Amino acid sequence: MSHTPHQLPDEFPEFAKTLQALKLVDAHFAKLVDQYDEANQKIHLAETNVTPMDDIGIIELRKERLALKDDIAARLKLAAEA
């Protein structure tokens, strides 16, 4: 099994503990993380041609992943400041 790039612990190593803690206590945050992971997995499978997808589909998934990442990042920063 290959390593899927852009996993959240790799993207936010400085927030690894906060990421795990928020997933346990904040259901909405956990849902965002799940959505990010799902989009990230779909992108990885498309980019490695395991599940081929047209360029437009990949671009839309990348936009979705980026929006989720931005939301997750903002929540992680707020939690770390609290």
Automatic annotation (TrEMBL):
Highest rank taxon of the organism: Bacteria
Name of one Pfam family that matches: DUF465
Gene3D superfamilies membership: 6.10.280.50
Protein name: DUF465 domain-containing protein
Organism: Marivivens niveibacter
Classification lineage: Bacteria, Pseudomonadati, Pseudomonadota, Alphaproteobacteria, Rhodobacterales
